[in-house]
């Protein structure tokens, strides 16, 4: 389910303006949203984060979380105050060592006013001390903090950070992370990147995780509970860390049979997308009642329900493909979601071909033929689907169909050069659908505006598909063997 944000009133912003001393008249509050039209109050204006250092303590019996977040950032305007996206109870905020005043605004904004205004281009260190019970917090009628029988999980899209750390919560402001979590002995804490060290003292064990590559806030995850952790190294040299709740029950075998193939699949995807962009890979399967999976960077979140019908390597392929398309290269704005979901779905089509269960062309033909011209499927524009259809089936299936159309238009040599070159072109950064079109035109040497418009932006079924000429509505096409598995992941991000 997608969340539409109701704009908070202007009174808070007006009161902040009145509070600025005359000597700081040129300084102004940072915007309470980063400017994304899909989610106007997600993220914040006025600064750019470089690093988050999170030092936490968690008690699974009571769901109590205590933390100190140290945020290293740089101002992008003359700031009198700035916002952080956050829900828990704050006891102290310091900016560059000095105590700052703070208040809350709207449903998820922490407004910080430093002791002295901050000039544009200033390096700032923000320390936030906080505590609370995340499962008691909600905003806009929902929560992304998922309790489990032995702990909790933070994993959701397009937001998850508010419930456990203050942040600039938009994928356009990526940062590196140190996440240090103390939990009672016997409980484990899992996060992104690599485990740097563990230490035990007085009944508590601290886990220190590090993500040394830029990472979006919604891709930052935390899993707290009792896990069976496996480690390995892929043939390509990628360290793999997987974890499974010890109470998965009947889903345990299928989950392991799927997720333990992570190293193999990472190496296989590297042949298409280029070298794996991060220092580790893996996934975790907590005992949650949620139904989705999420490409949390280097440590994919899988719901046990993904494996209710047996092993499911297709969903593993989908989430691992995101490590290149979505995590390494992230969206500039949420309207660019096709770059994430279309290519992750197309990776499933490539895997189907690899497994001998239907070629990419057969899957494209089937998708095209399965939806008559008057199907609402064609009214969704994958290149800008709107927040209500951001994770709709058309973004995945029509999105992958557009990729096959591109492949047929430019030929395999240029197509596979683009697949591999794109993650390198925008490595660890952000890009838009328009950026991708320009890149594809540059590599292929062909004008592609008409093709992109037809497949990504027109709310109708293309009359002359770049598939096999299937222009007649209802043309019968045999269903590929892999389709049932692929279709089962249509709601993989449907929360």
Automatic annotation (TrEMBL):
Residues 51-219 form the Aminopeptidase N-like N-terminal domain. It comes from the Bacteria. Residues 309-455 form the Peptidase M1 membrane alanine aminopeptidase domain. Pfam families: Peptidase_M1 (PF01433), Peptidase_M1_N (PF17900). InterPro entries: Aminopeptidase_N-like_N, Aminopeptidase_N-like_N_sf, Peptidase_M1, Peptidase_M1_aminopeptidases, Peptidase_M1_dom, Peptidase_M4/M1_CTD_sf. CDD domains: M1_APN_like (cd09603). Keywords: Hydrolase, Metal-binding, Metalloprotease, Protease, Signal, Zinc. The keyword Cytoplasm does not apply. Its EC number is 3.4.11.2. Residues 1-24 form the signal peptide. It catalyses: Release of an N-terminal amino acid, Xaa-|-Yaa- from a peptide, amide or arylamide. Xaa is preferably Ala, but may be most amino acids including Pro (slow action). When a terminal hydrophobic residue is followed by a prolyl residue, the two may be released as an intact Xaa-Pro dipeptide. Its cofactor is Zn(2+). Belongs to the peptidase M1 family. This is Aminopeptidase N. It comes from Streptomyces canarius.
